[in-house]
Amino acid sequence: MINYEILLSGLNGNNSSDYYTIEFNRWLFDNSDEVILNGEVLTKADKFRIKVAFYNIQPPPNEIIMSGLINGSELTEIRFLEQEIKRIENLSNLLSLKKEYNRQDYLDFLYSKKIELQPLLPNTKTPNIDIFLNEIRTLDVKQKPIKADKNNLDLKNTGLPEHLYGKDIQVCDLRHYSQFTSDYKGTLDKLKVSALNEFKNLSEPKKLSNLNAVKTLAGNITKSWDYYLSIKNEKGGNLLSAINNRLSDIFIIPNKHNYGRIYDNFSTDLSDAILFKEMVLSEFIKEAEPLTIEVGADSPEVDKDERYDSGKFNGYTFKLFLYILDCYDTKGIVKYINIWYFLKRNIDKEKHKNIMFVFTQDDYKFYVKKHFGVEIKKFAKAGYKYEDNEVGILKNISDDYIKTLK
Questions:
Q1: Three-state SS string across the chain, please?
Q2: CA 38 from centre of chain
Q3: Mean pLDDT of the chain
Q4: CB neighbours of residue 20 within 10 Å
Q5: pLDDT, tens digit, 9 for 90 and up, residues 38-91
Q6: Contacting residues for 383 by C-beta, under 8 A, at least 6 apart
Q7: Is the pLDDT of residue 346 over 90?
Q8: Residue 59 preceded by cis peptide, ω within 30
Q9: Tell me, what's the pLDDT at 234?
Q10: Largest alpha-carbon pair distance within the chain?
Q11: Which of 2, 172, 290, 392 registers the highest number of CB atoms within 10 A of its CB?
Q12: CB neighbours (10 Å) of residue 133?
């Protein structure tokens, strides 16, 4: 009997993002025409030996550079994502219950990732709001060839390996974001105006949905300051791939530039990019909120409740959340976990058109610990019991909430 579960080795209910990054990097390694390990080009036999050893390279390498090309075509993240979705979909009904739930959670993550990357797909007519959000998400890394010279200001104070001096190398550049040399903020302002003009003509549910997406993105961009601080002292001359995993958690980087080296002021220009993106998102939210009936309908008691986070709920969903907490008899940690799964995946969005619940698992863990004193260490709903019993109970409670509004 074939053990299909080995195909999801390392995946659990809490690590979809990390698992995805590992699988993407392995896919790049397996399929790139050229892989360089510590300055040496690997042969096909070398790559095969590393693959059968489950990519456990000993001693750990200082550098791995993957060309990201296969027969001249780019190995893009979108191409990987489409293949990965097919792979995971094909494992349906072949796994144990425990692994099947892991598969479902990971597939949800992949579908969300596809929506996030959708504006990058070719031949699609993209709404102005999506164009605006895609520009915010995208970190456009330029690349230029230079001669590796110790007198070159691009490589001042660098950690460039000695063996590269005197050779042609590629330098990754973010200077087009610099507040001193570009009008990037002006470009964002124009996209924001177009997005707002489109936003005004949307139906109320679509306005709310788009505003929720903007707020979620704003939260992610704010988190990117942590990433900036982690690379603030990164030396020029190091490979962009050394920091790509940190950046790609927040930004879409259309071209990975695995051969590219960062220059000395890379982090400074990154801070300008983050600042402009964060600023214009804040402006969009400020102008869009008064145009959205539901947001403006929050009662004074909701606004004053310290548990209310307008970046994660709207007033409607916050009051629904509190109503479910009061009426749902399940005890302990599983109560809060089941509510997260229900509001995230199972609530009837035809009946609850104005739902806004944008907590990640990590956000939710922090939130319920802070406001309810409940510490969730692992997200594990009660298997068949949740699907067979708890979803129905929670749907009945949410339907009762609608009746209280009439």
A1: CCCHHHHHCCCCCCCHHHHHHHHHHHHHHHHCCCEEECCEECCHHHHHHHHHCCCCCCCCCCCEEECCEECCEECCHHHHHHHHHHHHHCCCCCCCHHHHHHHHHHHHHHHHHHHHHHHHCCCCCCCHHHHHHHHHHECCCEEEEEECCCCCHHHCCECCCHHHCCCEEEEEECHHHCCCCCCHHHHHHHHHHHHHHHHHCCCHHHHHHHHHHHHHHHHHHHHHHHHHHHHCCCCECCECHHHHHHHHCCCECCCCCCCCEECCCHHHHHHHHHHHHHHHHHHHHHHHHHHCHHHHCCCHHHHHCCCCCCCCECHHHHHHHHHHHHHCCCCCHHHHHHHHHHHHHHCCCCCCCCCCECCCHHHHHHHHHHHHCCCCCCCCCCHHHHHHHHHHHHHHHHHHHHHHCC
A2: 30
A3: 79
A4: 19
A5: 878 899 999 999 888 888 888 888 778 888 888 878 888 888 998 999 999 888
A6: 97, 101
A7: no
A8: yes
A9: 59
A10: 76
A11: 172
A12: 23
CA nearest 339: which of 310, 311, 372?
A: 372
Tokens representing 93?
A: 């009904």
Pull the structure tokens for residue 346: 């199972």
Enumerate residues 6+ apart whose C-beta is below 8 A from 151.
none
Task: Mark residue 72 as left, alpha or beta (left: phi above 0; alpha: psi -120 to 50; beta: remaining).
Answer: left
Q: What is the pLDDT of residue 241?
A: 63
Give the position of tokens 């397996």. Answer: 30
Q: Which pLDDT does position 356 carry in this prediction?
A: 82
Dihedrals phi, psi of 74, to nearest 5 degrees: -80, 135
